[in-house]
Amino acid sequence: MVVSSLKLQDLIEEIRGAKTQAQEREVIQKECAHIRASFRDGDPLHRHRQLAKLLYVHMLGYPAHFGQMECLKLIASPRFTDKRVGYLGAMLLLDERQDAHLLITNSIKNDLSQGIQAVQGLALCTLSTVGSAEMCRDLATEVEKLLLQPGSYVRKKAVLTAVHMIRKVPELSNIFLPPCAQLLHERHHGILLGTITLITELCERSPAALKHFRKVVPQLVQILQTLVTTGYSVEHSISGVSDPFLQVQILRLLRILGRNHEESSEIMNDLLAQVATNTDTSRNAGNAVLFETVLTIMDIRSAAGLRVLAVNILGRFLLNNDKNIRYVALTSLLRMVQSDHSAVQRHRPTVVECLREPDASLSRRALELSLALVNSSNVRAMTQELQSFLESCLPDLRADCASGILLAAERFAPTKRWHIDTILRVLTTQPLVQVAAWCIGEYGDLLLEGGCEETEPLQVEEEKVLALLEKVLQSHMSLPATRGYALTALMKLSTRLRGDNNLSLPCHILELKGRLPSHSHATLWPSRIRQVVSIYGSCLDVELQQRAVEYNTLFRKYDHMRAAILEKMPLVERGGTQDEEAKESKEAQLSEAALVPTEPQASKLLDLLDLLDGTFGATQPPPALEPSPGGTLVHLLDLPCASPAPASIPNLRVFEREGLQLNLSFVRPPGTPALLLITVTAVNTSGADVTHFVCQAAVPKSFHLQLQAPSGDTVPAQGGLPVTQLLRILNPNKAPLRLKLRLTYNHFGQSVQEIFEVNNLPVEMWQ
Q1: Which pLDDT belongs to residue 158?
Q2: Residue 662 pairs with which residues in a beta bridge?
Q3: Can you tell me the distance from the alpha carbon of 271 to that of 285, in angstroms, rounded to the nearest whole number?
Q4: Maximum CA extent, the chain
Q5: Which residue of 176, 308, 397, 648 has the fewest C-beta atoms within 10 A of its own C-beta?
Q6: How far apart are CA 235 and CA 693, in angstroms?
Q7: Spatial CA neighbour of 688 closest among 731, 655, 657
């Protein structure tokens, strides 16, 4: 006996009429009970109505998994009303993670073989939505037959289903190559747009398909030329631009076909110039077509004049009122600045104007492009503009702007005097107090010795040094970061002040001795510093509070280790290698400072002072393009330490799939043999970007692993800028290393996850 229940319209009205969430849940639970009872009783006439109500409940976020098998029954039904609701339910309730979706393969195959277009359309929509790799392999032949059917309704859906199949199973490309050439002659807008998309997917995933479709470049050029000149379909024109969606898709395909191919690029050069000059830019649709034209010109082997035209189009985009258009223009010019530097230089005044944009993303892109435009001829003017921007820019941009100015000054300084003046102006605007606090903390003992090479050396007392740092901590003008530098400097001075004869004793023993006379300050410095540090243990700033709590713990529980932990940083070696691994290992040695032997104190002070002249050792001159890490003050705040010797451990390729390669390079810093630095480099040689790239690592419990932040989460196609990530592994027992990696990313429209263990690691990593 079938239990009576509400109709779909009545259910919707009752749910919307519920005043509380509890009333809504009560209505839904009651109706779901009626639906379950109807399914158990097997009422074939009202099954599709019950499933329709269940789908509405599912869209509200309530569980509806018990209706999956009912979807299969409705799909197998000969009635169209049942099939329509059954296929809709399959698209909503089934996916690749559930084995039940494989049960509809035979039903879809039977429906595709029928001559009823409406049923074929339902089957194709479902296959393109939930079709797994297994289903695509089983049904590829049926879809290929429908590509050449006389009805445009079915052919359009078959083309879109073929796109889904290629994304799921790229090896099926050979099946769809022959029909695509015939479909290019279509006059139907939807079929032609789908065909261009299908060819694009084929060319991105198959080198054979790319070679095959380069023969149809003249035909694609003719189609696009017809759209530009005479207009292809009036009903698809937008804001006076004839079918911009089809134009954009053709331009993307031409970009792929013309990349690194001289003959194809030559065929499309004239057409691209025509599109660039005849497209109306008063509307957003025209700007979209022009932007795709510029990207195509940039990627193919276009003529020099055409590339200048593309740069000028981007220059006009910089004057547009739309922020999105200005942003894509700045991003594209940044890509072109290396290959077309002189053409981009013509728009330098407009780029500098973009620095004043209130939008943070625009000003950041303008800053990156401005720094890339600096050369020896404009370094004075550009540095002046950038320094003006530094004074008023957002706090998040100050570090990048200051670093960029210092790098540009080192590379293109006309005179040494101008170079030093520029460095001092940047430090005065940004981190001069922080630099001074770090220098006092690191070299405070040398400051007190008065060994400066001056005619009248300045005599400094310990009391004045501590009072100065306390003044920085108490000043209302000090930023939290500045207070952090001052607090760290005080901690360093607790082990560096001269005359402290009791430094080898723990602080609690010093306190038991009682207060010394007022004239004997030397042995009171640790206690005074400890009192100052304790004040900030309850600071509202979380970073400053954490530092104070950790320093207090160091005084209270690990005082015997304080001198070793706060040991001086080693010298920066001159003329170091430019390897990324060496650069990263320099930064990594900060946490292992206690294990690194100290250098003579006087030489360290001279080394710090030598940073101002930007010179290197006479035996190894600086490179022409990239500055040495030790030749500038850019990384002065990063607490410079010794650069490791070049690594002798061979590199290792551990992963390769569909053009994505993962390489490991290894460095063992000479001062810390227990530390291993592994640089993970991801390179993508395929035709599609790898997005949402995440690399995770695991080691045995006897090791200590720290993963640094990666350089990005997108690996550009065609061998673009690789993504790098540093792994810092501490191996105190020198045990053989076992490393397991997990990669997750999106590639060719698929979500990929790979977990594997690296077994062939070189023994030099731990021996």
Answers
A1: 94
A2: 655, 682
A3: 19
A4: 110
A5: 648
A6: 41
A7: 657
Strand order in the sheet with 750-758: 691-698, 739-747, 750-758
Q: Please give the average per-residue pLDDT across 170-195, as a whole number.
A: 90
With beta carbons less than 8 A apart as the criterion, state whether 665 and 594 touch: no
Provide the CB-side half-sphere exposure for 552 (13 A, CA): 14
Cβ atoms within 10 A of the Cβ of 212, count? 19
Instruction: Report which of 28, 30, 50, 48 is spatially closest to residue 38, judged by C-alpha positions.
Output: 50
Give me the phi and psi of 407, to 5 degrees please.
-65, -45
Chain centroid, CA 707 distance in Å:
16
Strand-by-strand arrangement of the 660-667 sheet: 652-657, 660-667, 675-684, 723-730, 704-707
Paired tokens of 316:
């006009």
User: Are 506 and 494 in contact, with CB atoms under 8 Å apart?
Assistant: no
Q: Return the H-helix or E-strand segment holding 160.
A: helix 152-168
Strand partners for 675: 730
Give the CA count within 13 Å in the CB-facing half-sphere of 89. 31
3 state DSSP class of 760: coil
What are the structure tokens assigned to 495, written together?
């082990």
Of the candidates 283, 335, 346, the residue with the CA atom closest to the CA atom of residue 309: 346
- Residues 647 and 666 sit within 8 Å (Cβ to Cβ): yes
What is the rounded CA–CA span in Å between residue 560 and residue 50? 76
Q: What are the contacts of 517-522 at 24+ separation with CB within 8 A?
A: 521/462, 521/463, 522/462, 522/497, 522/498
Three-state DSSP at 723 gives: strand
In what helix (H) or strand (E) does residue 692 lie, and over which residues does it extend?
A: strand 691-698
Tokens of 78: 């000969």
Structure confidence by residue, pLDDT tens digits, 367-397: 999 999 999 999 999 999 999 998 888 888 8
- Convert the pLDDT of each residue in 484-512 to its tens digit: 999 999 999 988 875 443 433 334 333 33
Scanning the structure block, which residue is given the tokens 């740092």?
Answer: 469
- Six-digit token pair at 341? 């530097």
Question: Which helix (H) or strand (E) segment is 365 a member of?
Answer: helix 360-373
How do strand 739-747 and strand 691-698 relate by DSSP bridges? antiparallel
**Predicted structure pTM score:** 0.61
